[in-house]
Structure prediction request, 745 residues.
Amino acid sequence: MSKIFLKFFLTVLVLAFFLTLFLSYFGIETDKFDSFIKTKANEVNRHVKLDFEKTKIHLNPTELNLVVRLQDPKILVKDNEIILTKLDLFLPLRSFFTSDFLLKRSELAFAQNNIKDLTKITNIFLPKFINKKLNKIFNKGIIEGEFIIPFESDGSIGKDYGFSGKVSDASINLTDKFSIKKLNTEINHTKIDNGDNFQLIIKKGSIYDLDLTDSKMNLERNENGIKTQSLLRTNGKINFNQVNAISKLFNLPKINYKDINGKVDLKTNINFDLNKKFRVKNLNYLTEGDIFYLEIDTKEKKFIREYLPEYDPKLIFKDTKVKLSNYESNQSGEFIGSIKVKDNFDNFNIKEIYNYNDKSFNVKGIIDLTNSKIKISKLNYNKNYNKKSEINFDLKFILNKYYNINKLNFLADKTKVLLSNIKLSKNFEVEDLKKLEIVTFENDIKNNDFLIKKNKNVVISGEIFDAQPLLKTLYKKSDKKTFGKNFNSEIKINFDKALTGTDDIVSSIGMIASINKGSYNKLSLKGNFSKDEIVEMSIYQIDKDKKTLQVISDRARPFIKNFEFIKGFEGGRLEYESIISNKISNSNLVITDFKVSKVPALAKLLTLASLQGIADTLSGEGIRFDSFEMKSNTEGNLMNIEDALAMGPAVSILLNGYVDKGKIVSLRGTLVPATKLNSIIASIPLVGDILVGKKTGEGVVGVSFKMKGPPKDIKTTVNPIKTLTPRFIVRAVEKMKKKKQEEAK
Prediction:
C-alpha cells in the first residue's frame, strides 16, 4: 500500500513539476481577462486605451502568482499609438478561479519610441505636476526600455514604479538655458530594501561645449524623496553663460565677473536630495581636475593697482589644478597653477574656505611675483620685473565687515615685509595689530629697517625709516584714515635716522604719541639734522573737533621738496602751524632766509616781466628771499592759498589762488622788483624815511600775473601795472617793519 501511495505521490509531483514548467514557459491562452483588462485600463485614465490580440497566462513560480501576458500590445494615448514589445500583468493565483482582478503590478516594455511618448505613459501613474515637468524637460530623442508599475490592494497605482532602458540622441532641458544635448545613456533599475535605485550611465552627451562621456548618476528613491549621487565628467570649453547657468542651477554664489572663457577637464561628484516637491536639499559636491586655459575679465580694483601698478584686470591662467568642494557648513577651493604677468607666467598656490555659518572667508596661499612690478608707496618701495619675489599670506575676512591679516609675508631678495595679526575694519583701517617687521631697499640701498610691536602699547624702533611718504602727506588731508575708531594706544618711536628725499637726513628721532578712537590727540617728535639744527613736530587737541599741528624745522628743504612746481630749494628755516577740523584745515607757513633756482614758472614770469637780469640769476646761483609767508586752507587735495607774500633783495611777490595737488596749479598776483618797491615805500611819509630812506620812483612799477596748468606745465601771462594795490603796500610795510625790529634786537 505504501509503495502505491509513494508512486502516486511521485507521479503527482512530476506532473506538477512539468505543469509548472509548461505554465511558466509556454502558458495557456485564454480570453477570461480580455474585456476586463481593457475596461480596467480605461478606468485608470479615460484618455488611455489598451489594445492587444490575445492573452496568455503564465505561472510565476518565484512569486507564486499569475502573469497575464498580452500578445501584440499597444497603448493609445489621446489617439497617439505607442507600440509595446511587452505588457505583463501580475495577478494572485486565485484570480484565475474567481472574478476578482487583484492586479499586483504590470511590466511593459517598448522599443525605440520618441522620448515624448515617455510622458504619455508616465501620465498614467505619475502626478500631473511631475508629469508636466517631465514633458518640459524631455525635448527630443529615442527611448527604449521597460516600466514596472505597481498597484495597491484597492487597485490604485503604487509609488514604487521603476524603469530600465536606453535613451539615444536626446535633448534634455534641465532649465530654460541649461540643457544636455546628443545624450546617449543607459538606465538600470534595481529594488533595494527601502525603495528603488536607478543608475544612469552617460555613454555620450554634452552640456554646451562640455563633453559628458562616462558620467554616472545614481538615484535612490525612498519615502522622503530622491537621494542623488553623481559623477559628472566635463571636458571642453567653458564661457561666462555656462558658468553662470551652472551656478544658478545649484544655487551657488553669483558670478561677479565681466566674462569667462577657458578649456577644462573636470570630474565632479555631486550629491543632493530632492524632496517630494523636487526642491534641492543637502547639496554637496567635489570637483577635481585641470584647467588648461582660462581667461577671466574682472572689474578693476583700484586698491590692487596701488600695489601692482601694471596689474591687468583680465586674468589669464594656464595648467591649473583645481579642487572645489561644497558641504553643509562650508565651501572650499584649492588652485595650483600659473597666472600670466606681461609675457610670462608666475606660479601660485591658493586655498580658500567659505564658512556658511558666519559668512567668513579664509584665504591662504603663495604667489610668485617675480614678473610683477610692486609698489608700496607708504614705504617708498618699488620692485621691477625679473626680480625673484613672492608673497605668502593667510587672511580671514567677512566682506564689508572686517579683514584680518593672520600672516602676510612679502620677500624679494633682501627686502622683507612681514605682517602678523593685523585687524582691519571694513574700510581697511587698522583696528589692532601684533607685529610688523620691515626691511626694504630702494635702488639697492636700504631705506627702511624697523620693527613694530604691540602688546599693551605700540613700540616702533629701528635703524632707518624712509619719511618721504609721510612728508608728502603732511599738507594733505586724506579721507582715508590709518586707524579705525576702535584703535586706542600709546605709541613710542625711536629711529637711528630718517630719510627725507634730500641730503637733509634726520638722526636720533624720538616720538611719543597717543591715539584715541583712531586719531592722534597728542604727539611730540624731535630729531636732529646736525648738532645745532633740529626738527620738532607736535599735535595737541584743542577741543572735541579741533587739533593743532605744529612743525618747526631748521631746514625747510625736506618739506618744500614735495611741491612739484618748486625745484632747487636751498636753505631756509620753516615754521608751520595748522588748525585741523573734521573737514578742513587752516594753516600758516613761514619760511625765512632761503634761495630758489630751477623754478620754470617763476623763470618764465621774470622773463615776461622783462626782468631778464633777475631771471638769469634764478637759473644760475638762484634768487634769495628774506621771507615767505602763506595763509591757506586745505580740504582733501585742494589747497586754497588765501594770501602768500615772498620778499627778497631782488624781487617781491604777492599772490593767491589754489593748488589741486598732482593735477593743477592756479595762481594770480603781483610781482615787483625790490628797487621799485623800495622807492614806493620811501615816498610814504615817515614810514619811508624809517624803512628805506628818501627815494622817488618812476616808470612802470611791476606786473600782474596769472599762472595756471599742471605742475610740470604751468602757463604764465603778465600785464604791466603803474601802481601797486594798497594791500600789497600794507603787507610789504608790515614785513619790512618786522624785519627792522628783528635787526634792532
